[in-house]
Specification:
Blueprint (H helix, E strand, L loop, with lengths): L3 E3 L7 H13 L4 H21 L13 H9 L12 H4 L1 E6 L2 E6 L4 H6 L16 H15 L1
Antiparallel strand pairs: 1-3, 2-3
Length: 146
């Protein structure tokens, strides 16, 4: 997947790791659980983008006056990271075995996620797992274990 994606190592979250390992030991195919997690992440990330906040809830840096003017002249939305809606529309996930990759295939996604100093573009993280996402992921894993 070109562009920008996140990698969440479940080793860092003990409860998720234990539950995921339990699911793996009980099933040859964890893709249904990963698919549900991917669908949740699509919705959660779209909501964060609509609210213009990072996964940790921090508001994104406002657009510069120049950017606002340029967006207006070109008929784009005045919302941050929502010019024509392409970035949000092309968020996706891929499942490969016991791995879920989530992100965007748009090359400029990394610029917005991490910022680009030489272009004076601040980081506006939109990819990541919030605390409420962690709770939902645990609920998804629990539901697949029962």
């Amino acid at each position: 997947m070109a562009g920008s994606f996140i990698s969440v190592d479940v080793i860092g979250e003990e409860a998720i790791t234990k539950m995921f390992n339990r699911l793996i030991s009980q099933s040859d195919d964890v893709s249904p659980a990963l698919r549900d997690i991917g669908e949740h992440m699509l919705e959660a990330t779209d909501n964060r983008m609509s609210n213009e906040v990072s996964p940790d809830g921090q508001p994104w840096e406002p657009l510069s006056l120049n950017t606002i003017e340029n967006k207006s002249l070109s008929g784009q939305s005045d919302k941050i990271l929502r010019g024509y809606g392409t970035l949000a529309d092309l968020l996706n996930y891929q499942i490969n075995g016991n791995q879920l990759m989530f992100g965007s295939n748009m090359e400029y996604a990394a610029t917005h996620q991490f910022g680009r100093d030489e272009a004076n573009i601040p980081a506006r993280p939109f990819l990541g797992v919030s605390e409420s996402d962690e709770v939902e992921i645990l609920d998804i894993l629990r539901s697949h274990l029962t």
